[in-house]
Amino acid sequence: MRILLGTLTLALAAGAGLAERAEAQASPRDTTRAAVAGANVLVDYGRPSKRGREIFGGLVPYDRVWRTGANEATHLVTDKPLMFGSAMVPAGTYTLYTLPAADGWHLIINKQTGQWGTTYDESQDHARVKMRVASLPELVEQFTIKIEPGAGGGVLKLEWDRTVASIPFMVH
Questions:
Q1: pTM of whole model > 0.90?
Q2: How far apart are alpha carbons 125 and 111 in whole angstroms?
Q3: What span, in angstroms and rounded, lies between the C-alpha atoms of 27 and 59?
Q4: pLDDT tier at 26 (50, 70, 90 boundaries)?
Q5: Cβ-contact 70, 47 below 8 angstroms
Q6: Using the 8-state DSSP alphabet, how is residue 26 labeled?
Q7: What beta strand segments (E) does the chain contain?
Q8: What are the tens digits of pLDDT across the range 29-66?
Q9: Dist. CA 82–CA 153, nearest whole Å
């Protein structure tokens, strides 16, 4: 996978096109993007569905690194430095993992990119930051990542089942 920062366009280096691959997968690829305080931020991820399963603490076990979606790794692309908590994230491309736990979640920003989602190398971690976790009033059937712009930054939100994990960020 090649990610061009200037236009934040995703292109597959080889294989079937993104649309063809999405139709063939139970967990299709999607992107969310936003212009946030002068930065262009994009997240490319797989969207698994609940399909009646217990999600957090079940399909996605607690206290184990999760690929934050399905299939290929979830990628964050930014053309400006971002600040997640006390972690400075320079402009570039990163893989996002999460570490869900019954007593709180962490977002893992990893420097390795282009790998299958379950290929996790802790030595490539750039940062681990605590996320806020809350219950949602409505069920979210298909895993969804949102970027909500705000003053000077925004909020990255992960929603699935009846759970939302979020973390604010600032453009640096």
A1: no
A2: 6
A3: 14
A4: confident
A5: yes
A6: S
A7: 2-4, 9-11, 29-36, 39-46, 74-78, 82-84, 87-89, 92-99, 105-110, 125-150, 153-171
A8: 999 999 999 999 999 999 999 999 999 999 999 999 99
A9: 8
